[in-house]
Amino acid sequence: MNQNVFAEEIKLSPGLKEKLYEYSILKNYEAGDVLLNENSYIRSIPIVIKGAIKVIRTEEDGREILLYYIKPGESCIMSFLGGMHNETSKVKAEVEEDAELLFLPIDKVSLFIKEYPEWLDYIFRLYHKRFEELLDIVNAIAFKKVDERLLALLRKKQELLGKPSITITHEQLANELGTARVVVSRLLKQLEEDGIVELGRNKIVLR
Fold first, then answer.
1. CA 206, CA 197: separation in Å to the nearest integer?
2. What is the tens place of the pLDDT at every residue in 178-187?
3. Do residues 69 and 54 touch, judged by C-beta distance below 8 A?
């Protein structure tokens, strides 16, 4: 297994990486698979080796909004906090791109904190990164128009997938933005007329 997937800004020693692989279970998932539902108890912490995971918040009326993506070398800070305090999940985690994940049992999370100071640093760095991303979401909802948020989301997906073509429906985009499908369809049509995107069947190409 490749143990060099952890992002440069999140440095883990070879010894800690070895322990992560020793105590974790490796699993593969396809895009669209749901890893964690809201109100579920968290028994293990996911660490992304390949692919990408999106973390979503769902309101009581069924509306959803994308909070952040989890990329290779990263984990979900919500899972850390919920699992360590034996609380149910406040978010849903879904596979954005075919993924390979390590699942570290909750009891090993506390053990690593005691034995490896860098593990605690890893958690704090993730917390800081997610906090900044959530602030960006709040600012975008409060101060940006939906068309700006839509284009920013498309560019983020393009960067995440590493290709100009994005396979997604208007309904999925609307859910991630927390708006209506008709609004997204209208804005995408305008972006196409402006020459910014090219629309296909469940596919969007950024020019």
1. 5
2. 888 999 999 9
3. yes
CATH 3.40.50.10260, domain 14-141, yes or no:
no
At residue 53, the 3 state secondary structure works out as strand
SS3 of residue 95 by DSSP: strand
DSSP structural state of residue 57: E
Judge: domain 145-206, CATH 3.40.50.280.
no
Domain locations along the chain: 14-141, 145-206
CA 11 to mean position of chain CA atoms? 20
Phi, psi values for residue 26, rounded to 5°: -95, 125
Could you read off the pLDDT of 58-103 as tens digits, one per residue?
A: 877 777 888 999 999 899 888 888 888 888 998 999 999 999 999 9
pLDDT at 1 over 60: no
How do residues 11-49 score in pLDDT, each as one tens digit?
A: 678 888 888 999 999 999 999 999 999 999 999 999 999
Instruction: For residue 177, give both structure tokens.
Output: 């933005």
Listed in sequence order, the DSSP H helices in the chain are: 14-23, 77-84, 106-115, 117-143, 146-161, 170-177, 181-193
Single out the residue of 158, 135, 38 nearest to residue 91, CA to CA. Answer: 38
